[in-house]
Design a protein that fits this description.
Elements (H helix, E strand, L loop, with lengths): L1 E2 L2 E9 L3 H11 L2 E4 L11 E2 L3 H24 L14 E4 H8 L2 H35 L17 E8 L5 H23 L13 E9 L2 E9 L3 H10 L13 H28 L4 H21 L3 E2 L3 E9 H14 L2 E6 L11 E2 L8 H7 L10 H16 L2 H17 L4 H24 L6 H10 L16 H29 L3 H30 L10 H20 L5 H14 L1 H10 L1 H21 L5 H43 L17 E4 L3
Helix pairs in contact: 1-8, 2-4, 2-7, 2-8, 4-7, 5-6, 11-13, 11-20, 11-21, 12-13, 14-20, 15-16, 15-19, 15-20, 15-21, 16-17, 17-18, 20-21
Length: 690
């Protein structure tokens, strides 16, 4: 297949039909709408300002998504296995309208969910704050008097804490020391010595309420006449009063705080249970989310259209094969003017691929590299075969290939993915087929599991022999094969460039830049052909055929042609000479490109060797049932790791070979991909009735 030809379309319709026409185009999903420059118009045309509506829709969509995430988080409903790959549910227009009629009710559920979320957040904050209060008051739980109690008529009560750990004995000893030191210091300031009466320790009743680590909570009863001295001494011991003393015994406040924590926890749990009860409304919430996404896209599109007093204009591109259908559908439902034409020579045209199921999965490789322009050819048909082929060579284990095929086939059949998910599953299915093929060619099935099990468990000599050859025993053959396939891959890239240049009318340039490389490469092939035939086939070249001599002169002729052709388009003798020298020097680039294909040998060799080592480790220990119990987990673990790493390596390197060694030879890119205006929904899609 190829890049589809495009038609430029222009629709002029009544302003009153704008929303309905945009709705219809969104359901069709076949038109890439482009912005039109109003400065080029003779009639006054204006953009329709939809920013306010878009802002509101974005806020609403965010609320819906948040509501969905909350219900999914607290709901016990489990998503099906591999649900992330599942395709969207298809709805007819009647089903869509029926569900849309329930959107107001669903929106009330969203508001309720938001209210519950706010309640959970509020009660969680209250609970956290209350727990901090409880943690601060808990050390005082055994205090049987209010913390604000100051004493009686003749006594003073002191309540507070220290940043040291004391019991009653150690506290009293430290208190006495600090009291005497204070009195001696006061006397020294007066220039006298403290007498025994001044150094007498005042009576103090001490109750240690709590002590742990670097905290001691205590209460003291002293005579009122000793209050000032006692407080001064306590301050010398880093005493601090409570920041929030209670009017009642602390246990009263502790009880209230615990009750408030329990109330907050119950409120949170009730809100969570209510959120769980909305699990059966998830389907409606999903639909509402998709509906809002479609409305956002719709208003965004309306904001790109040009409006006059009573009409509007819409420009875009549509695939030529879809143009008639789009025109028929629109004109049958609305009064409008529909005009289509071929793109102008200087017009940037979006590119759309159409390929078979075998080729389609690799289209994203080209798209991620660069979108094609009008002068490019579709590289996907050629690239697809080599993509799968090279991936299989690098993973190269039949067991791994079968697992890839079964896994992707399961997803394709059970989850029915669409879009890029479907393409990726198909891509890895074909990669699995190629991997299985090369695995049997190399005799690798989970490494050498057949031989290892036969030898380790049954003392037998059964093994899976390679259909072609064993890379671990003949790595040079694999290296030569890799270079040969790489050479073919590069030649195909050059052939594609030659074809593209001829197609675009650059025949002379194609012969000067490309053709002589073919001549030179043909000479090289004739020189090395006897070695390749001897390595891979029983055939030989007859002695009386001077193939090498012919090849030498052919290569020389090609080199001369490359030098002369390199000056094509250059001005002056010096310019042509420099151009020719640069063209000949380009042979080093081809050698470098060819060496890149050695990765086909390296990764293919490593995959099988690591798998075989894993099997050997599994059969190394114990015997009988003990050996089996060791072998199974070792086999599963090491082969899972080997499959993951090897598949990732194969994926990375096969992409590199396409980007660097193949596409760079002929594919310029720099275009834009066809992006139809459609419903970018996640859960549902609408089928337009024909």
């Amino acid at each position: 297949m190829a890049i589809l030809p495009m038609k430029h379309i222009e629709i002029i319709a009544m302003q009153k039909d704008a929303k309905n026409i945009v709705d219809l185009l969104q359901r069709l999903g076949t038109v890439d709408v482009t912005e039109r420059d109003s400065s080029d118009e003779t009639e006054e045309l204006n953009l329709f300002n939809t920013r306010t509506s878009l802002n509101q829709l974005e806020k609403t969509s965010a609320s819906i998504q948040h509501a969905i995430s909350l219900v999914e988080e607290f709901s016990t409903v489990k998503k099906p296995f591999l649900s992330g790959f599942a395709g969207r549910e298809e709805l007819s227009i009647e089903e869509f309208n029926e569900r849309a009629a329930r959107n107001d009710e669903t929106m009330k559920i969203v508001y309720d969910i938001e209210s519950l979320d706010r309640k959970i957040a509020s009660e969680t904050t209250v609970r956290t704050h209350t727990r901090h209060q409880l943690d601060a008051i808990l050390p005082w739980e055994k205090l049987d008097i209010p913390m604000q109690y100051t004493g009686s008529q003749k006594t003073s009560c002191i309540v507070g804490q220290f940043s040291e750990s004391y019991d009653e004995k150690s506290f009293y000893a430290e208190f006495c020391n600090q009291y005497r030191a204070m009195k001696e210091s006061e006397a020294a300031l007066k220039g006298i010595s403290a007498d025994d009466e001044e150094l007498k320790i005042p009576d103090i009743y001490t109750e240690i309420v709590y002590t742990a680590g670097d905290q001691t909570c205590a209460s003291f009863i002293v005579h009122k006449k000793d209050y000032e001295d006692v407080m001064a001494t306590l301050r010398r011991m880093s005493f601090t009063a409570p920041s929030d003393p209670t009017k009642h015994p602390p246990e009263v406040r502790i009880g209230r705080l615990r009750k408030r924590i329990d109330e907050a926890s119950n409120n949170i749990e009730e809100a969570r249970e209510k959120l769980k009860s909305y699990a059966d409304k998830l389907d409606d919430l999903y639909f509402l989310s998709d509906y809002m996404i479609m409305r956002q896209d719709k208003y965004d599109m309306l904001g790109r259209l040009l409006f006059s007093g009573k009409t509007f204009i819409l420009d875009g591109f549509v695939a030529e094969e879809d143009c008639a259908h789009v025109e028929e559908v629109l004109t049958s439902k609305f009064e409008l003017v529909f005009e289509s034409r071929d793109p102008l020579p200087d017009e940037e045209v979006p590119a759309k691929f159409k390929n078979s199921a075998f080729v389609e999965p690799v289209e994203d490789i080209v798209e991620s590299y660069s979108a094609p322009t009008k002068g490019d050819i579709d590289p996907n048909p050629v690239m697809a075969f080599f993509y799968y082929f090279f991936f299989g060579m690098m993973l190269s284990d039949a067991g791994y290939g079968i697992l890839l095929m079964l896994g992707t086939l399961f997803v394709l059949k059970k989850r029915k993915p669409e879009g890029n998910n479907r393409k990726n599953m198909l891509k890895f299915f074909y990669c699995g087929m190629a991997t299985t093929f090369w695995g049997f060619m190399y005799g690798s099935f989970f490494g050498d599991v057949v031989g290892s099990v036969s030898k380790g468990f049954f003392s037998g000599k059964v093994s899976l022999d390679p259909i072609w050859f064993d890379p671990s025993k003949d790595p040079m053959k694999l290296l030569i094969l890799s270079f040969c396939l790489g050479f073919i891959h590069i030649l195909l890239g050059l052939s594609a460039k030659f074809y593209r240049m001829c197609k675009n009318g650059e025949v002379a340039a194609a012969f000067c830049e490309i053709f002589f490389w073919f001549v030179a490469f043909a000479g090289v092939v004739m020189i090395i052909l006897p070695m390749i035939l001897g390595e891979f086939t029983p055939w030989t070249i007859a002695d009386n055929v001077p193939l090498a001599e012919i090849g030498k002169w052919t290569a020389i002729a090609g080199g001369v042609g490359i030098f002369l052709g390199g000056g094509y388009g250059k001005k002056g003798i010096i310019g042509k000479f420099i151009g020719g020298f640069g063209a000949v020097y380009g042979v080093t680039g081809y050698f470098s490109d060819l060496l890149s294909y050695s990765r086909l040998m390296a990764l293919g060799l490593v995959t099988g060797i690591v798998g075989s080592v894993a099997n050997s480790i599994g059969t190394l220990f114990f015997s009988g049932i003990g050996k089996l119990l060791v072998f199974i987990p070792v086999f599963l673990f090491f082969h899972a790791i080997n499959l993951g790493i090897s598949a990732l390596g194969a994926y990375v390197h096969v992409n590199r070979l396409q980007y660097v060694e193949f596409l760079s030879k002929f594919y310029d890119g720099g275009g834009i991909m066809f992006t139809p205006f459609t419903g970018n929904t996640k859960h549902f899609k609408i089928k337009e009735d024909n």
